[in-house]
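Predict the assembly for these two chains.
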Amino acid sequence: MYIGIDIGGSHISAGLVNQDGKIISRAEVPNNSRRDYKEISKDLADLCKQLMDSANLSLKDIQSIGVGIPGSCNDKIGESIYANNLNLSHAPIRAEFQKYIPYPIHIENDANCAALAENYFGAAKGASISITITLGTGIGAGIVIDNKIFSGFNSCGSELGHSVIVVDGPLCTCGRNGCFEVFSTTQGLIRIAEDLLKNNKNSDIFKQVNGDLSKINGKIIFDAVRNQDKIAEEILSIYLKYLSEGIVNIENFLMPEVIVLGGSISKSGDIFLEPLKKLVAKKVYAGNRIPHADIRLAQLENDAGIIGAAMLGR
Amino acid sequence: MYIGIDIGGSHISAGLVNQDGKIISRAEVPNNSRRDYKEISKDLADLCKQLMDSANLSLKDIQSIGVGIPGSCNDKIGESIYANNLNLSHAPIRAEFQKYIPYPIHIENDANCAALAENYFGAAKGASISITITLGTGIGAGIVIDNKIFSGFNSCGSELGHSVIVVDGPLCTCGRNGCFEVFSTTQGLIRIAEDLLKNNKNSDIFKQVNGDLSKINGKIIFDAVRNQDKIAEEILSIYLKYLSEGIVNIENFLMPEVIVLGGSISKSGDIFLEPLKKLVAKKVYAGNRIPHADIRLAQLENDAGIIGAAMLGR
């Protein structure tokens, strides 16, 4: 049995995970951006105890404990190095955790955990090289090579969202201009919609939000696409153009066997996936002369963080 | 002792390479784009025999034979899969070679061979992850992880030149628009120069080519930069802006320990390297909060292909 813990901005979620990647039991505590690594590490230990108690297990029954963190981690030294949204920069989480439970613990970036979970048990099961990309309010991405997370010499790699696809484009949170993340998040989709709707007030979307463009969200846009609203189709087409450029860049760089797309946008399913696949196939290097990555929708979604963290020590 | 062979468009060059990566003896035959894999494979065998004879060695003294090819290769099946400029698509080179010499032979993309050589014996010696990029008439690139070439599930990866940095930018040879290769080759540098010189006829460069812009080359531009010609400095500054965006993309993706730059442009040395390093340091993800790749000039240059090919079976 394994324990996986996913540290999020509002909650810390933990699960007892079996060798087939199924979550057998769960536990959760609240979190916020001000708490430091000492408070969080105590929570991690408490959650482990709670999970073991619930299943009447002791430490000798646990094969490994892993923790996913929304930031850059260095598992070699057991530290969270840099976290944008939490108080976890240069935080020696492992040493602090071990004050409560003297047991090995692995720490890793949460997007990398999700990628590992999809590679072990989800959409990329069995792939020799897979990349999992979460399209949400930001871009999360993880690279798995031969069942192991690849994150560069400094453990901070696979920042696939922060590659410029439009030099001098709109400003990104990372300080550069025109990053893939700027165009491929939900915010990127909404920005395209806002631009087009200014001069197209007879779209379904405009009616849905009663003319208040600040109320547009991804669901409203995709619902309008399903209703064959012309403006919504144009919004999706522009969005997919930029998304496909970023995906082709990733393919040409790394030639993974499988690319997994997760996050809120991917939940729109085939209406998004099928036209994306066609665009990618048209642009990818050497076209149909060589085999290329299969692009699939994520299967584990919100549980991927816990499951992947649990597998870190496997 | 090892044998490395580098198949080029005009010549096939071979070398007997010792375990320290030194070329002990050389042999060469002409090549052209029309010759097929059967003719070329016979040449490979003849070159091997010639090298062994020259050093009074037999096959039992040779630890491995490797061949670098300007195209995509699959060493698992011993075939050259796709070559843009040579008649070597779907060519079973290994099987054909073994008709003449019944001995294991490894085949690999030539840019990957160069990257392996720099990682073993050159500018990236000892790096856990290195990327070698050749800036010439095209962009060649190879990724080395833990002393092994990484080229994706289909052996065709690390096409780092074919990642779009300007959506809807100028057309690339791969069929996409705005690839890194369009901006970072010698041709990219010259295009910037041509654009600027149309309206700036009192530049040194304009005088050097007697007003004939078709005669501009990289050397003339860099010479003018050294003479502090304002227009030449502006040309270099625009070139470095695009080059640095591509390099930062590569860093953020893969976080290599070392990035090696080779090819004709990199021969300009510090005048090019130092400002490039500054631009990259400003833009790279998480800035100085985490360690980053060291950017260095290639050391092995024209010999890298032979030396790397020789190391394929090591």
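Chain A touches chain B through 49 residues (CB under 8 Å). DSSP finds ten helices and twelve strands in chain A.
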